[in-house]
Amino acid sequence: MDSEARIEAAIKLFPVQPFVYERDPRKAMSACSFAIVASSKSGKTTLLKHIISKVFPEDLKVLFTMSPCAEIYTSMKKDCVFVPTYLPDIIKTCYLINKNTCNHYQFCMIVDDVIGFKGDRQLTKLLCLYRNSGLSAIIAGQDLQMLNPTGRCNCNSILLGKLNSAGRVESVVRDFAKTYFPRQLTMDEKIELYQRLTNDHCFLFVDNLNSTMVRVKLNASQVS
Predict the structure, then answer these.
(1) pTM
(2) Hey, where are the domains in the chain?
(3) pLDDT tens for residues 106-164?
């Protein structure tokens, strides 16, 4: 079997499915975390908005972004408190509020295309510890390296979209997809497979809690 045939066979292992995520109703504080990694024009913001509205409809949401006036955020103004940079003290304050109110509130911290937070202690605590105190997280950006290794390993769900650099694709494949892609493929073939699987606004949804990876795409009814 030649390279093209191997790639085509691998694509069939990942049919497109609708994106579905349900928080655990058995848990009173069902906090969870997402990382969305994709380049511009890949459908990243549309997916982010869907997750915010459908997975976290009742949470108190704080969105950190360096472009708070961007048109893409217009529909989110009524649901989120916007912070025009990354301020870790806000995350710590939300944690302390719940610490002193017996986890009374459900918070969702959203970081979208912000730079300079990779080694921040509060972000690491948010992904590793604060979900036990009712703080959920959505971290969205264009590079896997936006998170440190500890943060990457502790994200419950990773959504991997179209990436414009082969180097970024290789990094993502090594860190997240190599367990799920056919072992007989070379790295060049895995890079090509990833690029094809994430065409047309598709994402690879890695569920770290259940050790699964599926290919997903929002359908017309899910796009707001």
Answers:
(1) 0.93
(2) 31-222
(3) 999 999 988 777 778 999 999 999 999 999 999 998 887 778 888 888 999 999 999 98
Handedness of CA 11, 15, 18, 24 (dihedral sign): negative
CA separation for the pair 64, 83 (Å, rounded): 5
Burial 160-169 (b: 16+ CB within 10 A, else e): bbbbeeeebb
Widest distance between CA atoms in the chain: 62
Q: Tell me which fold the domain 31-222 belongs to.
A: Rossmann fold (3.40.50)
Three-state DSSP class for residue 16:
strand
- Which of 199, 137, 207 minimizes the C-alpha distance to 169? 199
Which of left, alpha, beta for 124 (phi over 0: left; psi -120 to 50: alpha)?
Answer: alpha
| Strand, helix or coil for residue 89 | helix
Residues 6+ apart with CB under 8 A from 219: 18
Residue holding tokens 């459900």? Answer: 106
* Cα–Cα dist 145/129, whole Å: 20
